């Protein structure tokens, strides 16, 4: 399987792709372009960005094909050994999960524009690029030569975004056994040494949670804009984070926000890229991959993104509490919390998960999932007298499920929560995961166990605060919750 990629039209933002498929021995094959991308659980129908689609044989003669779904092509390959599928793809969406080509850089998420042959997803892919000579490429894929990449299979290929330009900024450092790469496309105002120190600190905290960091190299691909942007997408060994500076943000607030989103995306390296619901193992790129477990893959990740900054000492308790309180505001401001559960909202991300939607219809797997994760964590800490926390549950999902090729289910997650807490999670799943309108009271109840309360500030919003005097038991639980312990 080989892809040749070049820039077709910078001004109109089209890239040119030629997909060479060899070793044909069937009368017909089906070509599939993904209908969605992991990380955003809704159909995106990338085929709508394809134009000038044609297939030829080795002599340049047209090969007969017809479309059998919106993004599947049936190709008549009788008597042919090799075919060439060529098309242009519209690349003008510079967010963290899409593609862009302009006069400064080429940015591709192959899940948008690369196809597979049904039944041959496990074959390796090679990629060659026709680019200006001074362009460098940043990607988790192996670089096999000048402007040449390879991926062991289709899943890895489409999980490997890349930047190519002549103005990439690159930094690297080691954390445990892993080399962390930080790439910038576009200008920025970061103190890079500070960013590297902070990244190292929260990465080490995350390694403590899971036991190890399973990639040799990990890449943060920061795409910097002049316009407002704040968006990250996780991948197996990398993340793309698209950032733009908002006028009303001071540099420091912006920087702290970048740390929060980066910590969230790194945590995904384990939680969703490796620890995966059974129903998404493997991903089916042709249609919806329904799951009610968004409160784990996004909720727990949102919770840990901030918690790791706190536990690693990058954030103070005050910074953590402020971020927690702003998430809480989003929960309270959403009347959907009285009408729909977080589990049902997870299923429905495929319907309206990434738009505002009808008022009061649903909740967010990020926000309500984060609150549910906090309740679970504190419940385990308190009931185990500080011996265990949600860390143990996440480590088991990684070490005992992912590493044995297994996904997880609600039953498995629940069994682990009950095992480490030693108490029933019946009410937790009934009221907080599948119920509605009860998360806030559940959170308040849990926070008391770690000596914290929700107080109303002068704007009428609830804010997370630590009480001034804590009992010995509360202090112990608070320490377990907020600091990294052996
Ligand atoms: Zn996420």
Descriptive account of the structure:
- The structure is a single chain.
- The protein has three domains: 2-164, Immunoglobulin-like (Sandwich); 168-250, Zincin-like; 278-482, Neutral Protease, domain 2, CATH 1.10.390.
- It is of the alpha+beta class and 486 residues long.
- The model has no long low-confidence stretch (mean pLDDT 96).
- The chain has helices at residues 110-113, 154-157, 192-210, 251-268, 294-311, 317-333, 342-347, 349-352, 367-383, 390-401, 410-421, 426-433, 439-449, 472-482; strands at residues 2-9, 14-21, 28-32, 50-57, 65-69, 72-76, 83-90, 100-101, 105-108, 116-117, 125-130, 136-139, 142-145, 148-151, 162-165, 168-175, 178-185, 217-225, 229-234, 238-244, 452-456, 462-466.
- It is built from 14 helices and 22 strands.
- The protein has a seven-stranded mixed β-sheet. Strands 16-17-18-20-19 form a five-stranded mixed β-sheet, with helices on one face.
- The structure holds zinc ion.
- Residues 264, 268, 298, 301 line the site of zinc ion.
| Biggest sheet descriptor | 7 strands, mixed
- CATH fold-level label of the largest domain: Neutral Protease, domain 2
Tell me the domain tally. Answer: 3
Strand order of the largest sheet: 4-7-2-1-11-14-13
What is the gyration radius calculated from CA atoms? Answer: 24 Å
Structural class comes to alpha+beta
The oligomerization state is single chain
Distance between the termini: 47 Å
- How many helix segments? 14
In the CATH hierarchy, what is the architecture of the largest domain at level 2? Orthogonal Bundle
CATH C-level of the largest domain: Mainly Alpha
């Amino acid at each position: 399987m080989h892809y040749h990629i070049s820039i077709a039209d910078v001004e109109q933002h089209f890239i040119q792709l030629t997909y060479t498929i060899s070793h044909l021995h069937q009368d017909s094959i089906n070509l599939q372009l993904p209908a969605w991308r992991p990380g955003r659980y809704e159909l995106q129908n990338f085929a709508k960005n394809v134009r000038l689609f044609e297939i030829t044989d080795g002599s340049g003669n047209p090969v007969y094909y017809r479309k059998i779904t919106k993004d599947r092509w049936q190709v008549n390959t009788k008597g042919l050994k090799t075919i060439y599928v060529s098309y242009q793809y519209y690349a003008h969406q510079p967010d963290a999960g899409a593609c862009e080509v302009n006069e400064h850089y080429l940015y591709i998420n192959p899940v948008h524009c690369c196809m597979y042959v049904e039944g041959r997803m496990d074959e390796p892919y090679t990629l060659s690029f026709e680019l200006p000579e001074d362009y460098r490429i940043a990607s988790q894929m192996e670089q096999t030569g000048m402007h040449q990449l390879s991926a062991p299979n289709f899943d890895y290929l489409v999980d490997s975004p890349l930047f190519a330009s002549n103005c990439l900024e690159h930094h690297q450092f080691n954390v445990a056994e892993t080399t962390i790469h930080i790439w910038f496309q576009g200008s920025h105002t970061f103190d890079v040494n500070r960013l590297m120190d902070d990244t190292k600190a929260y990465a080490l905290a995350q390694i403590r949670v899971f036991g190890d960091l399973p990639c040799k190299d990990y890449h943060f691909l920061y795409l910097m804009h002049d316009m407002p942007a704040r968006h990250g997408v996780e991948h197996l060994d990398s993340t793309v984070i698209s950032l733009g500076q908002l006028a009303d943000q001071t540099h420091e607030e912006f920087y702290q926000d970048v740390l929060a989103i980066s910590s969230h995306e790194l945590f995904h390296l384990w939680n969703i890229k490796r620890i995966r619901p059974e129903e998404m193992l493997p991903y089916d790129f042709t249609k919806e991959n329904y799951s009610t477990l968004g409160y784990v893959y996004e909720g727990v990740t949102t919770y840990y993104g901030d918690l790791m900054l706190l536990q690693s000492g990058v954030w103070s308790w005050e910074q953590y509490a402020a971020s927690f309180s702003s998430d809480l505001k989003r929960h309270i401001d959403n009347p959907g919390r009285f009408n729909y559960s977080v589990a049902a909202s997870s299923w429905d991300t495929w319907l309206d998960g990434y738009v505002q939607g009808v008022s009061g219809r649903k909740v967010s797997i990020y926000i309500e999932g984060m609150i549910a994760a906090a309740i679970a964590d504190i419940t385990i800490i308190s009931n185990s007298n500080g011996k265990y926390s949600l860390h143990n549950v996440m480590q088991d999902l990684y070490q005992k499920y992912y590493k044995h090729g297994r996904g997880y289910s609600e039953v498995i997650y629940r069994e682990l929560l009950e095992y480490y807490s030693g108490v029933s999670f019946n009410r937790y799943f009934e009221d907080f995961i599948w119920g509605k309108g009860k998360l806030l009271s559940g959170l308040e109840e849990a926070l008391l166990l770690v000596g914290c309360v929700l107080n109303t500030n002068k704007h009428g919003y609830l804010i997370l605060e630590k009480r001034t005097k804590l009992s010995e038991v509360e202090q112990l639980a608070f320490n377990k919750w907020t600091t990294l312990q052996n």
